[in-house]
Structure formats: C-alpha cells, structure tokens
Amino acid sequence: MLMDRAAGCLLGGALGDALGAPVEFLHRTDIDRRYGPGGITEPPVPALVTEDTQLTLFTAEGFLHGLVEENGFTWPMTFIWLACRRWLVSQQRVEPAEGAGGLLADPRVYASRQPGLTCLRALQRQEMASIERPCNDSEGCGGLAHTAPLGFSPHAEMAYRHGCETAALTHGSPGGWAPGGALALIVHLVAVQGRPLWEAVDQATGRVLADDEETGLALAGARRLAVADLRAERADHTEGTAPSAESVRRLGEGWRAPEALAIAVYAALVRYQPARFREALRLAANHSGASDTTAAITGNLLGATHGTDVLPRSWLNRLELAEVVAQLGKDLGAACTGTDFEADHYRFTSATTDVP
C-alpha cells in the first residue's frame, strides 16, 4: 500500500536521523570509545531529530500545500521554497505566532538543532535559487537530506526533476542538487512503482550521469561494493563477516552529497531484508562523518521499500514528532494516488510576512 510505504519512508528517515545525530562529527574511534565496539545501536530517549527531518517535514508540507492550492501536480518549487523559508521561522522563534498555520502551529517544531550554515544562508535570501540561478557552489549533503518526499510525485521523471530543483534551493553545484534528484527517483521507483531497490539504484545511476558524473559514479561504486561484500558474506557462510565498515569508509564521510547518497545506498543494499533494518541504520550511522544524514537517507530508502512494518516499534515510541511524520507521509502517498486526504490541513497562509 503506497500510503504505508510513504509513511515508512518519512518515519524511517526520522529514525535514522535520530540514531545518527548523537555521533555526527565524531570519529569512528571516538564513537566506539563512547558507545562500545559496535558503536551506537539505539536512538536515545527521547529520539530527537535534526534539521534534516525538520526540513523534510516542511518540504512535504510545501509540496502538499502547492498541490492543494494549484489543484494538481504542476511545478511546486515556489511552495517548497516558501515552506523551507517557513522553517526559518521555527529556528528564530520559540513558539507559534498568533494565527500560525500548518507545521508552524505546532510548538514542538520550534527547536534549533544546529542547522548547517549553507541552508540557513541560502534560505535567508529574498530570491529563490534554482539550477539555472544557483545561490552558491555548494555540494554539501544538506540539500539532498530533505528530498525524499519528492519521490511521491506521480511520474519518475517528475520525481527526479523535483528532487533536483528542491536540493538546488540551497545547494548550487550539480554535486549538491543531482543527488537530490537521484534520491527522489529511487524513492519513487521502489515506493510508487514497486521496483526492487537494486533495479531502482541502477536506473537512478543512469539518469543522474547526464547531470553529474560524480554522483553517477558514486552510486555505481556503492553498488559494486555491496555486491562484493554480499558475495564475501555468502562465501564465508557467516552473516556479518563482510568488511562493511571498511566499505563505508571507502565511500567517504558523507559531508558531500554524492558521498552521503552512496553510503546510504550501500547500507540499504547490503542489509536490504526487512528484518535487518536496524543493522542497515547502524551501519550508515557508525562512521566518521555526517552520520545523521547518511542514516536518515538509509531509513528513507528502506522505509519506502518495505513500509512501516520494518520499523522497530520501540524506536518509534521514543521518536520526536512521530505522529506528525507519519501523517505527512500518508498524505503524500494519498495525494500521489489521487486518494482523498485532509486537504484543508494544507490550506494556510504562507505569506512572506511570516518569514524573517
């Protein structure tokens, strides 16, 4: 059921974000010293999300707001841009203003989780950036981190272009926005079309090569490593013997968007089975780099593939904003299939006067 896979995509991303957040910026040796040889294995209590999930929620809301206001999927970038600008409000105020609507009416979103300066500076501009009019030359992972909701566009190419344009709102280099398109395309292929993750990765690799060779090569490299490690694991007849942690290190640290996407795809492929969701997120989080982003994207991919049944209930019970994340996901899935949802929830004023 698409609504369940959409909810799984957003909830899985939030769980990965919360798992990786405490170890972001830590070297792997420091992670092991603090949490033991296996690194961090459970999200903390409460499982707090970072700006990656916050911006994902506002992006999803902006997408749905545009759908409701325009009565159809056209080109939602203005609405997503305004939604991301509305997220700035939650970073600069401590509580909702009188008459606030949508996510800004929820006091719990008013929490600053050390957002990246690249996103902050780009969204503080009065002019919306685009692929043709970049706001910077950044290829950091911050633009990629909130593009999964665009996978629930009704068509594959639309999902890809929406993902690219959304990432380009804050990250102007092809290496910053092309991975966003690739992630949205993979999510669309597995969740909407029901394609196997391996096939979706292959299709996204071919598509993104036309826009950014580095991202295409990073995805191809992640796939090769996944195949090699799974073969080694089967040859040894012992689960967990493949050099997965070393492979993650070879793919990079995830601060750059092509690396972050490659790490997430690798982790999702080598621990693809529904019962191994925890292992996939742990693999994606326990490394010397952007642990929250890489684990979040891994959760997006596996949640979109398998739905909510794979998500650990004990983790969900401690997850911040879990019911908000789930509802936005369900509404994305419903909108994608033309199923009725609470459209009035996405009718609110998004005037620029709300934005600092």
Automatic annotation (TrEMBL):
Cofactor: how bound: Binds 2 magnesium ions per subunit.
Cofactor dependency: Mg(2+)
Molecular-function GO terms, alphabetical: hydrolase activity; metal ion binding
Keywords tagged on the record: Hydrolase, Magnesium, Metal-binding
Residues engaged in binding Mg(2+): 50, 52, 292-293
InterPro entries in UniProt: ADP-ribosylglycohydrolase, Ribosyl_crysJ1, Ribosyl_crysJ1_sf
Domain of life: Bacteria
Family: Belongs to the ADP-ribosylglycohydrolase family.
Name of the protein this chain belongs to: Putative ADP-ribosylglycohydrolase
Native source species: Longimycelium tulufanense
Lineage, broadest ranks: Bacteria, Bacillati, Actinomycetota, Actinomycetes, Pseudonocardiales
